[in-house]
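Minutes, methods subgroup
Present: GH (chair), OT, SY

1. OT presented the first of two proteins processed in the latest run. Sequence and structure tokens recorded below as shown on screen.
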Amino acid sequence: MPLCTHRVEVHAPAHVVWEFLVDKIQHPERYVPGVHGAVVEEMGDPQCLVRTVELDGDRRIKERVSWTPSTRTVCFVLLDDPEFTGFVINQVMEDEGRVLLEHTMNWRPRTGSEAEAEAWATKVREAALHTAAQAERRAAGIG
């Protein structure tokens, strides 16, 4: 699929949004539609791990996940996937007093068409909106 990005303004402090991105590393099912869980296979340095994620349709993907607190960035890189190659990046940014959450996905099919591109773009958008809503509820003292 071609590169897709979704950016949303979040009405919550950046550190609160970042807490949700860190939680998403071990609990993606709380944030991403179609994900049922993840198992950490190995820990790398203190800010890197390899995990297997369970998706709809009994599909599993293996990813190397690394995160950088100073830039509030999390990077998910596909490992040894038979269908796709690529990455996803989640980032929390502050710009002129606004907090922005950006999810970028760049998965390319190894062979065949990019017919699933629209479905994946929708999932990227839904994951960003869901994470933003959770952060806003916590910032408001609701969650």
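2. SY then presented the second protein from the same run.
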Amino acid sequence: MITFAGFFILGIGVIVYNSYKCARIPVYQTVITDFEIQPLKIKVSKDLHAEMLVEIQKIIEQFEIKTLQCFIFQGHSQRPSYLVNMVGKISDNKTLANISEQKLPLNDHTILQATLKLCGANPKEDDSFFELNVLWIHKILIYKNYIIISMSVSNPTYLNSDAEKQAFLEKFIRNKKR
């Protein structure tokens, strides 16, 4: 009976630790320059999808984003769902006035906090961010002088190797073809 209770407590501990780790440690990260956002294979009209891509590209050009730091976080410790965050630094000469009316508390978003820390920002617990735009699967977030393109997606299998993770990321963003 004591052995069973020990295994039960150990199992609960492993689940809690994996959930903690999923929200704070990316399974893959890379830096991409000279990039283009990729059309997603989703079930919406081609016109709507093209409109979403144009809108995202406008935002990237408006803020003069040249380089994105890309992170893949495992969204759930028991399922192959992932959160992709692509972070760019906004030029210092760009004004961020009137970008959004709605401030959201940063302390409610552990993965976003971890992403910002990995990018060199040191967010405080009481900081907030703005949700600039939600384009169905893409969320555009602004924190100080960082823009975050965030999307939550599932995959049929777990991403085990770096090659699988890179191929998964290339579904969303890749280097421009010259």
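Chair's summary of item 2: Helices lie at 2-22, 46-62, 110-118, 162-169.
Next meeting: continue with the remaining queue.
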